[in-house]
Design brief:
With 363 residues, the protein is an alpha/beta fold. The protein has a domain of 89 residues: MurE/MurF, N-terminal domain (Udp-n-acetylmuramoylalanyl-d-glutamate--2,6- Diaminopimelate Ligase, Chain: A, domain 1), CATH 3.40.1390. Helices cover 17% and strands 26% of the residues. It is built from 5 helices and 39 strands. The strands form 6 sheets. It has an 11-stranded mixed beta sheet with strand order 10-13-16-19-24-27-30-33-36-38-39, with helices on one face. Strands 8-11-14-17-20-25-28-31-34-37 form a 10-stranded parallel beta sheet, with no helix packed on it. The longest helix is centred in the C-terminal third of the chain and has 29 residues. The N and C termini lie far apart (94 Å).
Length: 363
């Protein structure tokens, strides 16, 4: 579907300039844009490549001299990247799974399917499952017994919602996401070497061979409204109580959330982050890619963890952490600087030792 420059600007609450009747049917990077595409020149450095493409219109920062860039029209945004959120939603056609319920879908007679919901081929919906209105369930998905899925959900291909999972409205799950698998919970008949090493900070004591007994996960998973989880991300069910994810939280590809974890509202967990079992995370936290959070710890609100950081102990609200083990970012940066100076310091020490040990020839 095509929109005029004016229609897009009005929808985004931005200023339109120039030939606002130009029709836009797609988005493009500035150097690759065609006449019917809106060039994404969100920063001055991006606009430098506009001359390489054929864009007639672009989305630019507030106050940009669009005419000097050779454009016929422009959308001027005070925060261009935020405007891109609404713009991409307008342009994205979404996946095409067809309307209605595909004849190959297997739906238990006791399941409740909301009005306007589409269900793709080879999807299975279990007994007593409830799917909210106007949801889209892609091909080969599995929705287990007793699952409650809110209205307006989008499940891409091969998503699994295991039994007893409860999810709010406008949920999005990318390809292969899994919600509600059993937690990784095992125990030995007597104190294990791992337990002893943890309490003694390294001493296993006398090593004894023991088999691991499985602790079943009888809890579920509760997910709030407006949550998104990425491809192949996994959220384990709780041991006794539910694992919970708060409203508005976004979970990237390959993220692992352990059993009994509590994730607050509006958190961001980037690719390959992992949350240990029974940890509690506050609201508005951001965890960079490959962040690791140990089990049974507490992290306050508005915490930011740099990529690759490993959090092994409680973190107070508002703190920015980095490194392994994660510490305050400014302290960690000082440590990094000190490590880089070590080779030079060692050379200086060797030189000083030689100077001190060499006899003074003036005596």
């Amino acid at each position: 579907m095509a929109y005029s420059v004016k229609e897009i600007a009005v929808a985004l609450g931005c200023e339109a300039a120039g030939a606002t009747d130009i029709l836009i049917d797609g988005l493009s990077e500035p150097g690759d844009a065609g006449p019917g595409q809106l060039a994404m020149a969100l920063k001055p450095e991006y606009a430098d490549s506009l001359s390489k493409g054929a864009a007639r219109a672009a989305i630019l920062w507030a106050g940009a001299d669009w005419q000097a860039m050779g454009l016929e029209a422009a959308i001027l945004a005070s925060r261009p990247r935020f405007a891109l959120s609404g713009l991409s939603a307008m342009i994205d056609p979404g996946p095409e799974y067809g309307d209605g319920i595909h004849p190959t879908a297997v739906i238990d007679p006791s399941a409740e399917i909301g009005v306007g919901t589409r269900i793709g081929p080879f999807t299975v919906v279990g007994p007593r499952a409830v799917i909210g209105a106007n949801s889209t369930i892609g091909p080969q998905c599995f929705i287990g017994a007793g699952v409650r899925l809110g209205a307006g959900a989008l499940l891409r291909e091969q998503v699994t919602l295991c039994h007893g999972v409860t999810i709010g409205a406008r949920f999005i799950a990318q390809t292969g996401a899994r919600v509600g698998a059993d937690g990784f919970s095992f125990v030995t008949p007597e104190e294990s070497g791992v337990e002893r090493a943890r309490s003694t900070l390294g001493d296993q004591g006398q090593v004894k061979s023991q088999s691991w007994a499985r602790i079943h996960s009888v809890g579920g998973v509760t997910v709030g409204d407006d949550v998104e989880i990425g491809a192949n991300a996994c959220i384990d069910r709780g041991t006794v109580r539910d694992t919970t994810v708060g409203h508005g939280t976004k979970i990237d590809n390959l993220v692992q959330i352990g059993h009994n974890a509590i994730i607050g509202n509006d958190c961001l967990l980037c690719a390959m982050a992992a949350v240990g079992g029974s940890s509690k995370i506050g609201n508005n936290c951001v965890f960079g890619g490959q962040s690791g959070i140990s089990d049974n710890i507490f992290i306050g609100d508005n915490v930011i963890s740099g990529g690759g950081s490993k959090i092994l102990s409680n973190v107070p609200s508002g703190r920015v952490v980095l490194g392994y083990p994660a510490t305050k970012m400014d302290a960690q940066m000082e440590t990094y600087k000190a490590l880089r100076r070590l080779p030079r310091l060692l050379r200086d020490i060797v030189a000083l030792k030689k100077a001190v040990s060499k006899p003074d020839e003036s005596d």
